[in-house]
Structure formats: structure tokens, C-alpha cells
Design a protein that fits this description.
Elements: H1 4-17, H2 30-41, E1 56-58, E2 65-76, E3 82-92, E4 97-99, H3 101-112, E5 115-116, H4 118-133, E6 137-146, H5 147-150, E7 161-168, H6 169-172, H7 174-184
Parallel strand pairs: 2-5
Antiparallel strand pairs: 1-4, 2-3, 3-6, 6-7
Length: 185
């Protein structure tokens, strides 16, 4: 679990290292606030995303299910600054078994709340959906802006990174992939 005391000490040390006085009025509670924020931002480290996908329904539906534009916030593991954007999750059920639409969004939230790279987040989502739902196929598309590119380094705000992961029938069926890409546009 998150060690709030250790986080507060680390934040205080960072403030001191950049030449700030952690005891001045505006910063007195900053270590506590940052520790609480990191507890929220990294809560996905302590959750199994597949737990959300245990609720399923028999609907005799074996055609495309797509939830698009799921907003998320994650944290770049290289710089510990946010990246944020939208995830699009598509799957084709097997044997007519579907899950609740909100479960897809909850799974995205759980996976996003970890320090990581976008590529791993995309892969983890696809693998989680494949293992938990055992659909005919899954396609995950993640589009995000990385603050490590926007506010530091190359300083290119607005630049988006898009990653995809395809599993099952979407790997072999270019028409099915194209259908999802067209619907996401």
C-alpha cells in the first residue's frame, strides 16, 4: 500500500532541494496533499482490473461492442508527470456473453492509475479484456497527450501519441479492424 509518511518526507525534500521553504504558509500542507494525490493516482497498483469484468450477461450478441472516448489520466513512469487522453475499447463477444458498459470504463481507470508508459497501458488493457471476457477479439486504441513532451523537453503541447493493441479476430481480420477505426473517427 501507499506509504503516506514516506511520500510526505520525499515531497518536503524535493521542496527543499529546489530552494523552497516547506514551512512557508502556502507550502505547509503541500506534502500531505501530494501524498494523498499520489495515493489516488497510483491506486491501480493495488487493484486487479479484471475484477470489474466479472459481471457478465447472456445477451446472444456476437457483434461489435465499442465504447469510445473513455477519458483517463495516467502518470509517465519516466518523469512522473501526467499523460491523459481517451481510450477506445472494442470487442466481439463469444457465446453472446457481454459485460456492462461501465465495466469497460472502470477497467480503463484501474489500469490508468499506475506509473507506466502508454504502450504498456494499451497492452495491459487488451490482455485484461481478452483473459477476463474471452471474446472473439479485442481492439484497444489509446490517444494521449504527454506532459513530459508538452511542458518540458521538446515542448510540443497538443501532440498526441496513439497506441493500439489487437487480439483475437482483430489480428487477422483487416475489415473488422477498419470498422473499429472508422467508428472511432
Amino acid at each position: 500500500m501507499i506509504n503516506h509518511d514516506k511520500l510526505q518526507q520525499a515531497v518536503k525534500m524535493i521542496l527543499e532541494a529546489v530552494g523552497e521553504d516547506p514551512d512557508r504558509e502556502g507550502l505547509k500542507d503541500t506534502p500531505k496533499r501530494v501524498a494523498k494525490m499520489y495515493g489516488e493516482m497510483f491506486s491501480g497498483l493495488y487493484e486487479d482490473p479484471s475484477e470489474h469484468l466479472k459481471t457478465v450477461f447472456a445477451e446472444s450478441h456476437e457483434e461489435l461492442v465499442l465504447v469510445k472516448d473513455i477519458p483517463f489520466y495516467s502518470m509517465c513512469e519516466h518523469h512522473l508527470v501526467p499523460f491523459f487522453g481517451k481510450a477506445h475499447i472494442a470487442y466481439i463477444p463469444s457465446d453472446g456473453v457481454v459485460t456492462g458498459l461501465s465495466k469497460l470504463a472502470r477497467t480503463v481507470d484501474t489500469v490508468a492509475r499506475r506509473p507506466q508508459v502508454q504502450e504498456r497501458m494499451t497492452k495491459t488493457l487488451a490482455d485484461t479484456f481478452m483473459q477476463a471476457l474471452q471474446p472473439q477479439g479485442v481492439m484497444v486504441i489509446v490517444s494521449a497527450e504527454h506532459m513530459c513532451m508538452s511542458m518540458r523537453g521538446i515542448q510540443k503541447p497538443g501532440a498526441k501519441t496513439v497506441t493500439t493493441a489487437v487480439r483475437g479476430m482483430f489480428e487477422e481480420d483487416a475489415t473488422a479492424r477498419a470498422e473499429v477505426l472508422n467508428l472511432v473517427q
